[in-house]
Predict the structure.
Amino acid sequence: MNSLFLIAQNTTSLSKDEQVLDNKLSLLKTEILNNAEKDKLPIYTTTFSTLKPLIENSTLYKTFQKMPKGALLHSHSGGITNAEWLIHKAAAYENCYVFTDTNQQKHPFGQLMIFKENEVPNGFIKLKDFLKNDSNAKEKLLQLLTLKRNNLSEYIDYWVEFEKRFQRIGSLLTYRPIFKEYYQEAFQELIKDHVQHVEIRYIFGQLFDDERQDYPIETAVFDLKKIEKEIQKTHPEFTVKIIYTSLKFLDKTIVEKELEKAYQLKKKYPDFITGFDLVADEASGNSVAYFNPLWKNMKNLEKKYRVKLPLYLHAGESCSIHNHNISEIPLANNRRIGHALNLIYFPKLMEQVKQKQNLIEVSPISNQTLGYVSDLRNHPARVLLANNVNISINSDDPGVFGYDGLSYDFWMAFMNWDLTVKDLKKLIFNSIEFSSLNTSEKQKAKLHLQKEWNAFVKNSIQ
Ligand SMILES: [Zn+2]
């Protein structure tokens, strides 16, 4: 390990400049709290969706925007890019249509799809016309593509509404020209927010365009790698990794085939496909243990394809102690756990997670918006931090939650968890340390982060 990096990771002491920054951030927080008090705003019980304009106007947010944040380790295909941008971009395509028929339910209202002019089904109108005919149309569509929690007592059928958002854009994102622009934009949004590395839980669908309906799944890998290369011309530090992702509610015979496909892709693109995961609502999907035969078979797949494919499982995205997914993870093969909200109710397991060097990917805004944690001061991540369990800060599906970048999540964590600069540093450097970058990439990424961090500290205290 690089010695500079060790200094940066040394969370027991801060440099003089870092101490000055620590004081400054603490003052900025006090100022926000004092203003909220003056305005009689119950800031801790106000949702992210409502606080967003206040966040954007705060110096704390502007400071976090400039802060190098290392890696975004937990994000999803279909949820990573700003929804407003997507509407604007889709409307530029003459062949993009929106479903607006309230009398039939073949599609969710507001679903965006690509059709040839003579093949448009009933109920769809040209997106361009839809936006032109009504001055509120864009805002209405934005509401349908994003999920917001306006207040903590509002009733939302969270997962039903959440999944509708993905359904509305799912097909559109497999149209290859939009697919390419979507990820280009996603990476640019992250770069602008000083994120240097991203790992996407990617669900492979078949890409199509005006010439072909049946591109092989590798086309997505090929395109994403090409976009990464293009971006590296101006931002050589920026890197992308793909975690092959399937769905928890599918039958194990289907997921078995998906897992094998993941190994095949890993063999072909060993430095780009870096892991495997299963997603979807844990309250209604299959348990992690249901897939035990698959996890056991990974040894054979490893031999067959002569590559290792680590797991990065979502587990414990739940507040219930009856959800045992966390305890069913094959920890030795697993590198990071997505959410793990109920881990704190199993202290022995929490100790094991620590021993096995698994990191918990925490997504504060996602957890609040999907109803798992209301007042973020009570987020389980605080217990993990107090027990020295490694965690990192993530945005999960910022496009669906109505924002982009990672600074909002840092703002919410900092304001609600009494974080210091020591904590921020640890969270940020953890994100590179626990990334799936290979050894030499990680070495480079650490050096870059260290340099950026030093410059950030220096500039922020002037
Ligand atoms: Zn997730």
Q: What stands out?
A: Residues 65-83+160-453 form a domain with the TIM Barrel fold (CATH 3.20.20.140). The mean pLDDT is 96. Residues 27 and 60 are 9 Å apart (CA to CA).
